[in-house]
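question for whoever is on the cluster today: can someone run the full assembly for these? two chains, 473 residues total. i dont have access anymore since they changed the login thing
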Amino acid sequence: MKPYSNEFKLLLEASQIPPSTEVITELFNKGIHQGYLFSLAIANGVLPLLYGVLKTTSHINVDKSFQRQAIQIQNTNFVMSAQLLQIIHLLKEKKVELIPIKGPLLSQHAYKDISLRPFSDLDILAKEEDLLEISQTLLSLGYKSEKDLAVLKHPYILEKFSDFSFTHPQTGLVIELHWKLLKTATAGLSNIADLFENKISIPFQNTSLNSLPLEEEFLYLCLHGAKHRFERIEWMNDLNRLFELYHEKYDYQKLLSMAKKEDSLSSYLLALRILHLSYKRSISDTQTLQLMNGRKIKVLYEKVFSLHAKDYILQTKKEGIRWMELLFSIRLEDNFLKKIMILKSIIFPLYMDDILNMKKIPDSLTFLYYLKRLSRYIKTKVL
Amino acid sequence: MNIDKDFVFPSHVMFQEFDDEAIILDIRTQEHFGLNPISSFFLKNIQNGIKPLDIYALLLDEYDVSPEQLRSDLNALLDSLLKHQLIEVS
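^ ran it for u. tokens below:
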């Protein structure tokens, strides 16, 4: 298997808690291409973290572009955090609750600093009954939605989709309003009422924000990272930072049970194997340790390793079906029926417009949406 | 004099350092103000729960400025922050 480049090794070392100055110096002595390192750090979402480590390593001269980019990310994160707080403040006045996911809250929660973790949009989780109120608030702040808000009242759309985007035409800021944590969630993570009931509070600037319960947050990030093949180091770092803070508090039996209920045991175990092997984390739960050494998890880990080694994140992705990604998703999925569903959703994707263009049809006729998807496939691929 | 009182940031205020400068922002209006290194140092310590008079003493040690001038500048800064509801007496 192709080994990691020195630049990738450097990013991984800078991500450790704490990073080793000796290892970093040794990697620089072996030879680091700063232009390549810069691109790799941005693509992996670790540039502010890397810059913070390198600027305190006195004998290393870092190119000015690192500092400029770190400051730019810091500014963007500040603006986006301020926007998140304004939205929460306005909704609080209307007695509407939400839970920010990923973004500024994760940066503050896991890294204790909103500047260290880049994010490109704001994700907020809301109860279905609050979606319209939240949407109206976003519109009042100048955000635009691609589709009419009526879609948020459509039961089939609420069932089949998990989020709805808003964009601010002047600032370009994107807000994703989620009513589900995962499109495919079937158990604990899909029970939004429970998530709100058991939410925790995280200090943020001079206030505190709602956050997912600890185990649910950890599992959600495991599943999210695995879904994206942990292509970016930032997804592994998020878990490592949270693990650093809470490894003694996590209830591993609860995590295992939740992962099984979501048919996502492999995703969870893959994440733990990464923490164990790439971040030298010891897993105290013997059952978890045994499971994550299973053959399937080893194969998945090797695949993630090889994607990192060949800088898959920097490669230009082709349009259309990406077979490697599809195969990874199918291999990762634990439930056979869901493997079939993955194939179906890639070949016959369902768009909101499919549902909207067919007007409202009775529940008993929703199978017609599949015909619509089939007809689109024939039109685009065959005719 | 304001400098003799204790202050905290209200929950609607964000304060963030950028190297040796900082920004303070009212999340309700998104109105924000850039702060010079001295103001930034002062507010960072306020955020950390240090009393204004103690910060005043630290600044006096650090910078070549007369006690009267520094006291007057810090009072003016606190006046302005109070006026914009960016800080409140604890």
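summary bc i know u wont read the tokens: The longest strand of chain B covers residues 13-18. DSSP finds three helices and five strands in chain B.
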